[in-house]
Amino acid sequence: MHLLDHTHDVNARSWLASAQAPGGDFPIQNLPYAVFRRRGTPDMFRGGVAIGDQVLDLAALSATSALDGTALQAARAAAQSALNDFFALGPAAWRALRHALFALLKDGSAQADTVRACLVPQAGAEYTLPARIGDYTDFYTSLDHALNCMRIMYPEADVTPNFRWMPQAYHGRVSTIGVSGQQFRRPLGQSVPQGARTPAFQPCARMDYEQELGIWIGCGNAMGERIPLDAAEAHIFGIGLLNDWSARDIQVWEMAPLGPFHAKNFATTVSPWIVTLEALAPYRAAWSRPPADPQPLPYLDTPANRAAGAFDIRLEVWLHSERARREGRGPARLSGTSFRHQYWSIAQMVAHHTAGGCCLNPGDLIGSGTISGPGPGEAGALVELAHGGQRPVALGDGEERGFLQDGDTVVMRGWCEKPGAARIGLGECRGTVLPALPA
Ligand code: MN
Description:
single chain; Fumarylacetoacetate hydrolase, domain 2; 2 domains; 11 helices; binds manganese (II) ion
């Protein structure tokens, strides 16, 4: 459990003016990690921390005398071209570096000039995946999403009985995970055309996105040794944005009985920035289960998880069509919700994942499952918003979408804000659908 300390003080300020920009994602209370380099250079990718409109270069900072002890050891690990070694150091090292960076960046720091020389403008940076991802697991843990999807076809339907007893998941594909800015071809696969009785091999006709959060595993566990629910968060480094692109027509035909395959393995996009659980501490929320629903089995239920297992992370999806970009119009907002509605918590996902003896490793990635809220306009996938394509969503200027078209760029954003706490953001996650290859 992460407690509030001086690094969450709403009144803390940085000597870097842009850290105080109203509505900014990266004030001194946030300090998220990415792997970056100056755009267009052959430099090594290395770890960096966002502050205002800059990236603090951890390789450069590690070479100064600004850090020492555990914080220096942590910064050196985080200065590599992937954050896995830093993740493996664990919560005490993560906290030591957070506290040291906070002191260096705070108004009045005697080291401001040294640190300023280690800043790279975000506008001139490019990013790569923040870690070498060994395994990727995608959950299915939003009851609103699950019900919305079921009820497109069967208005009275309920989720399968296991949904309310366990956080469901399948093992996903790592090789096609890309960082924000990813472009990929519309997938080919088998699907059954409307009115037909047999499948055809053709480009996906029902291309969709899924708004999720990416949960980055910090320290792993030994095979056969499960992670208890109350220890789960000590194994989570942080959270970023994740788009679990989905080919709905391919998915419907292929997924019984073993689950998604072509429908999901062609691309997954993550944000470059990972916000630490420590930074998210002010935005914890109670996790609850409606009294009429099954209550979790004991291994998925503790007082600590009930008290503060949820996170109030605001999320939005925007669509920027090729035509809008060509005509100089901005993106259209499709939806907005909060992660606090999720039926299962991130700690429950980790505890359940390891309950059977499966080990997790530093840099493993967990998709939260599509995040849909209870109200209209809160759905995290286009298939829900457009009711299976039957009620296309207006984009403005006469454009509408039942499913995604070639050239569409989907932009996901996330942030936290509330009175008495600093607003912190997750940045953005964008990706673009390109035309399919010929079948
Ligand atoms: Mn998904």
